Fold these 2 entries.
Entry 1:
Amino acid sequence: MNQHNRHDQHGQHDQPNQYVAYARMDALHALQEPRTSSPFEMSFILISQVKELLFRMVHLEADQARARLAEDRPEAACRALTRTVRNQRVLTGCWESMNAMPADEFLGFRDTLGQASGTQSFMYRLLEFTLGNRATAVVRSADLTAFPVLRAELGRPSLYDEVLRFLARRGLPVPESVVARDPAVPYTPHDAVEKVWLSVYHDPDGHRAAYDLAEQLLEVAYQFSRWRATHLLVVERMLGGKRGSGGSDGAAWLRTVNEHRFFPELWTMRSLL
Ligand code: HEM
């Protein structure tokens, strides 16, 4: 009998437990392997895994939004972005659980992490690449080259690339150099793109689809920055000014990461509005 056909936990009948079998709950619950007996380490691993799955969930929706835009279906893209944002809120909410851990309890098992660090999360990086932050240097430094999914992603236009291509197809003056840019290279903000967004915000009714898209994108960017900002607070709470396990300056490094904004011209054009 294979694992999927086990009797239910009371052993009362021969029906396989379809709940467990369908979503592989047995395999899921076998995935936590704390290295100490601290119950806080178990909750640290659990919430880290929950977050990894939510990175994937957010990625799934952002990827849908990108696909709908490539099909010139901006309303469907906006609906996918709404779902993206909902999942991002859940993701940020997870810090509440992590904050329940007193710093001394964290330090009690921190050494067992070795050099493990969130910088090595390929799913987080896949999400960043998909949205448009293609900081490729980190792939080399955090030893992510082993994950072909990241290399494949760099060969595709990001969500923001698709947004700008969509605007160009709608007749807005997005420069050809932006539309045809190499997606593997980090994006450089462009004055002409800032002006395009400005024209959209000066005439929302004339550019309804682009305006609605812009508002949803800004919400995605806002939620992403909230996640980063809350992570920084958690790090200060747990580590103060200590260095990170991944080798960075810890909170000091994360403060610079916090300055990044997705869809940059959507933020900078506000100064001109
Ligand atoms: C006690 C809790 C945590 C502490 C003290 C902490 C600390 C840090 C520090 C210091 C860094 C900077 C890189 C380094 O030197 O390691 C970092 C990066 C990172 N952490 Fe955490 N972290 C915690 C929990 C988490 C959790 C639960 C996740 C999600 C699963 C996470 C995801 C990340 C990611 C994705 C980065 C890279 C950010 C970027 O490259 O922009 N962290 N963390």
Note: The longest helix spans residues 39-70.
Entry 2:
Amino acid sequence: MNNYIESLYWRYATKKYDPNKKITPTDLTTLKEAVRLSVSSLGLQPYKVIIVEDAEIRKQLKPVAFNQNGITDASHVFVFASEINVGKKHIDAYVNNIITTREITRETVTPFIKAMEGFIGAQDETSKSFWAAKQAYLAMSSLITTAAILKIDATPMEGFNKVEFDKILGLEAMGLTASVVATVGYRHEEDEFQHMKKVRKSEEELFITI
Ligand SMILES: Cc1cc2nc3c(=O)[nH]c(=O)nc-3n(C[C@H](O)[C@H](O)[C@H](O)COP(=O)(O)O)c2cc1C
């Protein structure tokens, strides 16, 4: 088995973290880079990622996240917060980034700008917020798999109260709303879940090759 697949077998949604083990600054940089390099529709990255280190804030978040252990005991908490109302402002910022990064003129990207405006403009607010949240999930997935490769434990989490997270983290004022969370750190030796076999659909059940 190759190392990548081995890492995916090694990882599991960690339920109990060792509160004494912290991620090194180098590993944290790698995890952030993996999140930054995530794919997203149009490349727009309609989200921000709040990395919560502060113990006080994490204490406040725990009861509104079903008291999940990782919120306080993992090394870091990543909150993937999607943009509330993706629009012109986000497209402009992205276009300016493309122009500067690739050293090209605005005219070169005019058809792409029109396509983005058409795609975004055709959606109502609800549909845009679903779309933005889906992109945030992809970034979360990048974090989880990269963590596994680094032998860092992680837990994707939907088990939290989004309204309360938004309040505690002051997300609305930033035009954001919490979509999904991931805790990262190191498994506690007492976490029973690390010994459980992976449960997944078989290849035959999962794939339809035509
Ligand atoms: C979007 C998403 C949300 C999840 N939310 C939680 C959660 O709140 N708490 C938890 O313990 N596990 C959560 N999980 C973990 C899944 O239950 C777990 O990934 C799945 O059962 C497969 O097990 P494994 O990850 O250990 O291989 C979540 C997973 C995903 C992808």
Note: The chain has nine helices and four strands.
